[in-house]
Amino acid sequence: MATLIVKIADLQIGREMDTVTTLGLGSCVGITLHDPIRKIGGLVHIMLPEYAGQTDHNRFKFADSGIAELLERMIRAGASRHSLVAKLAGGAHMFSGAGTQNFLKIGERNVMVSLNTLHALKLPIVGNDTGGSHGRTIELYNNTGKLKIRTVGFGEKII
Amino acid sequence: MPHELKDIGEQSIDTFRELGNIGAGNAATSLATILNMQISMSVPEVAVVPFDHIINILHGPENLVVGLLVNMSGDLNGFILMILELKDACEMTSIALQREKPQGQELTLDELDVSALTEISNILVGSYLSAISAMTGLVVSPSVPQMAVDMVGAIISIVLVEYGKIGDSVLFLKTKFSDVNKSMNGHFFLIPDFESYKILMKSLGL
Can you tell me the ipTM of this complex? Predict the structure, then answer.
């Protein structure tokens, strides 16, 4: 039984008794995949939308490449491709009045590319708590597949 | 421009430290005037630090802070982010507004506090920017500050996103303001966009 902490632009996969968590998501998005039968769950913490055309080659940093990596590693860890379900949280717009500059809308683009990638990979999305203008800490419980979301001032919820 | 921030040389770091020193010095003088107290300022710490490290410096991703964001436009485009501990922000507004917060109550900011903080950050960022102008000859105008109170991990993501395109480190500038009894920490992040970064380096002779 362990709590695995996923850092920024990082990925972790845990077994049945593990909790996989990432703290203080702002415009970043946390995407989880869970196999409810084998009770394997993983989480990737991405900060930018697309891998293509970037000078940085950390695949966990981008929504499209990060989700593809997570899927591949989940299968390698013993998860079944066809039982996997996805959840995502984050993608906030932290300074709500600052939307005139494109890069400040990064949260929205992170969410859009994450959703598109999950659709393209035919991974069913069973939970989605994205957008808004507040930070989130998320915890995936691998025994149940539930995702707990904690905020400052916007309460706590489970999806 | 170095491909990765970590390739920035010692000389550039020194120049940025000097820039920070003058900028923060100006800002401290303004703060002393607003708060009507003696404010001393530490020599700024300037470093290129990895993402995870910066979050540790700011006491972990879930630490509750006040973030004040100002857009820059003109010769330089990008933004300045100022981060204050919630406790320090409350301290500042109670001094500026000359009212005592009830003891033992949860730290919160009301409308008046928000307005005072916006004004304080406006002045601090303005002083900081005028130092940059004086040193570089570049003209930069700041927007009205935007404020957010949230987990530092979430607030800092705006900085990480911009630096994340080129690597996993940020240029970090920490300045401590203090008077005889109290010490307040202010963290300034100067985040020019790609083009502006080149312009800034060039005008500093780097």
Answer: 0.85
